[in-house]
Each structure stands twice: as structure tokens, then as C-alpha cells.
Amino acid sequence: MASPPLTTAILGLNEGGRRLLKAAAATGHFQIKAVADQDPQKVEKAATEYGCEAYSDYRRLIVQNQLDCLLVAAETHTCDEQVKAALRKKSHVLKLAPPARTFAEALEYVQLAESEKVRFAIGNPARFKTCYRTARDLLARDGIEPVFLITAHCRSGSTDRPVWQNDPKLAGGGVLLHDCYSLVDQILWSFPLPEQVYALAANQAPDKQQRLYLTEDTAVVSMRFSDAFMANLVATRRNEIGPNQVKIEIHGRQARLAITENEVAWETPAGRDNQKWHYDEEEQVALERLLSSFAESVLAPEQPLASSAAENLRNMAVLESAYLSARTGFPEEPARILQLAGNLARPPASI
Length: 351
Prior knowledge:
The chain is α/β, with parallel strands linked by helices. It has 2 domains: about 5-95 and about 120-125 and about 285-305, Rossmann fold; about 125-280 and about 315-340, Dihydrodipicolinate Reductase, domain 2 (2-Layer Sandwich). The protein has helices at about 15-25, 40-50, 60-65, 75-90, 105-115, 130-140, 170, 175-180, 180-190, 210, 285-300, 315-330, 335-345, and strands at about 5-10, 30-35, 55, 70, 90-95, 120-125, 145-155, 195-200, 220-225, 230-240, 245-250, 255-260, 265, 275-280. Strand 2 (about 30-35), helix 2 (about 40-50) and strand 3 form a beta-alpha-beta unit.
């Protein structure tokens, strides 16, 4: 017997929220009860199209509804307390990446979800794209080990950025956090936590004083996994309209694996076993797979949750290390940040 659809609301109708709404409706796993956004016109249009309730106040949506799950696309600085309130009401939550503005904020969500015994997933659509899944399968087979270098590049457009993304307090970070999160996730999905992270970050403000009050638009991050294995991530925002350009290259002793948004290439030194796979796949397809996976894990608690918030603490620890390194000028250790999380999770010692 098929399970009834999950009563759901969408928080935030930015581009990501509209995609979430469309994908949730397409999967058949969700009953869209309500949508919310601070723009009344967006809310009314979506509510009319999907036959659901409209809210321009996030708090009212949470207070007035008992939801099986909440799908969050709204910016963290606009909905932090409402997401926590939903968790306390026993709603499962899926939040589009990044999970939060800082490691400490992400940890607070994880601990609250665990205490309320509900599921909190992070929406990383790249995990559900065929190109990245193909690459992960290739990495799992023999022939590339040992890996000694990963290079990753991210170039993204910046002309239509919301103003809040320039404010460190509201955004938490710039190009690294908001444009490169999926790249960091892809690396840590298949490889261990780096021992050290060293980063340089800058922005194009005209003078040094202004740069202190803006998020970074250019960054270089080096990760040291071992004496014989490292990774380098280069990120920049270009002042033009266009899609993100993302590429990861994984260099092994026996082969090189190159991954873009729609292509995977396997190359060997001799060239005899070279292979290439091309996928013309819309972003929406990956988002539907992501939401179906989330719904299935909610309906069947014994099923592991793909991309849980707890798992994503590793990503946040690496990013936190990068931002800290950019300020101090020294390498930082993500394991120390995760150790802090472990200490915070332990009950206080009795006196």
C-alpha cells in the first residue's frame, strides 16, 4: 500500500524555492499545504498555481501549521528562528545548501534535530546528478589509486547577486560558502577530511577599509590530506551574467578523472583506456531525485538519510577552517573544529 503524501510547506520563493516547489509537486511524495515568502506577489502567484495557502510571514506559517516536513530555500538570516521552531514542532526539514552561515550555527541545527528526533537533510542536488554519480562509481573501482592531487575550479556570475550576499553578518561568507559549497561536498563525499586547510581570500572593493565589510569574491584554498595527497580549489565571481562553470580534476597514479556539470572523462597515461561520458540532464531532474530520497527516508526511518546535516558538518568544518586561515594567515585543522562539536555534544561532567 502506497504511503500518503507528506504534508509540506516551502519557505522562501527565490529561484531555489521555486525549483523546490516544482520538484516537490512532480515527485508525488508531497502535499503542498503552504508557501511563504516576504514578497506578497511571489506568494500569491505560487499559491494560486499550486492550490495552497499563502504566507508573507514565515513565523505565521510555522505556528499555524503542523507539517510532516518543511522545505527551506530562504536565506538563513531571514528564517533561522522559524527553522528551529519547525524542528521543535517535530517537522522534518530539508534545507538547500549551504546548511548555515557558520559551523556553530549548523551544529545548533544538528543538535536540535537530534534532540527532537527528526530528520534534517541538506539539499545538495549535485549528489543526484548522473555525472557526479558516475564519477563516484569510477573512483570506487581500482585503477586510479593512489590519488595525489585534486584541482577544482568555480567561476560564477555576479551581476544579479542579492545585496545581502555582500554582508558578512547576513551571508556568513561569499564565493566559498555560497558558490563552492557543492564542490567542497563532492570532494569530501569521496575523500577523508583534510588534515590542514590554508586559504587566501579577497574582494574587489576599491580600498582596504571597504574590503573588511564585504564578503570575498575571490579565493584560493589548499587542502592537505597527507604528505602525498593535496587539493587546490580556486573560486571567483565574474562581473557578468552566465551559469556557474565548475570543474574537478582528480589525479591518480594510473589515471586522471575530470568532472564538469555534464561530462565525465577518464584518461590514462597511455591513452588506450580513455573514456568520456556526456549527460544532457536538467537541474530539475536531480532536484526531484533529491526530494524523492528525502521523502523515502522520512517515510521509512530505517533508511539512511542522504546528505544529513550531521554529515555536512564536515563540509562546514573545512569552510570554517578556510575562513579562519584567511584571517590568521596560518593553516587550520578541520578536525579541531569537529572535535569542538563533539565536546559540545557531551553532557557536562558532574561535580
